[in-house]
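Handover notes (outgoing to incoming on-call)

Open items:
1. diacetyl reductase [(S)-acetoin forming]: sequence verified, structure written out, both below. Nothing else pending on this one.
2. Nothing else urgent.
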Amino acid sequence: MQQEVAFVTGAAQGIGEAIARRLAKDGFAVAVADMNTDKAQAVADSINQSGGRAMAVTLDVTDRVQVRSAVEKTATKLGDFNVIVNNAGLGPTTPIESITPELFDKVYHVNVAGTIWGMQAAVQAFRDRGHGGKIINAASQAGVVGNPNLMLYSSTKFAIRGLTQVAARDLAKEGITANAYAPGIVKTPMMMDIAHQVGVNAGKDDEWGMSTFSDGIALGRLSEPEDVANAVAFLAGHDSDYVTGQTLIVDGGMQFQ
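diacetyl reductase [(S)-acetoin forming] structure tokens:
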């Protein structure tokens, strides 16, 4: 059988890296796409050295032409294109009064436009190869319930859930599914920075900042990136072929739907 190919954005560290490694472990050939060329190459090299198959792709997800080119390059080099994980994102702390037009444009271009460009490129790749595929988008627990001090981030993640549902309806007849995953409080560099900024804004320390997000987790611990990668692996694999338009919440029980 032809090896299936997955393309993961923001895959040089954190959740994206964990997803790339898990999908490689599950047998996918993986494109490790990120703006940080050196880190993306290091992840790809590590996967290859462990017996997997991976390539690094330098990518700015806000550039529509660049995204299309990266997807086509991946499909050509790895031999197919089956799954896209639109994981790249920004999560700055944004109290209402702090939001500027420049910051709005930056966050929305990465989190929302970058996801749309990825979806467009993936759909074209699926169609060109005459088969369906899977679109998997990064939402957030903060895109299910609004989180304090995260107006821009939360609102973009609410948008991700909406565009995922629209894509699921529009593309179902072509055998293309679209789902999202919504991590909770994950131990990543981005989350640590958010906690730091929340603490600074309140005149408190980093531990206090993190506690504002981690209170009430039923399982009693913060998430590891691998917890999220495990859920994405389900959405990428064939056990989820009858699942579309859904947001899979992976937050340890912070909220229940």
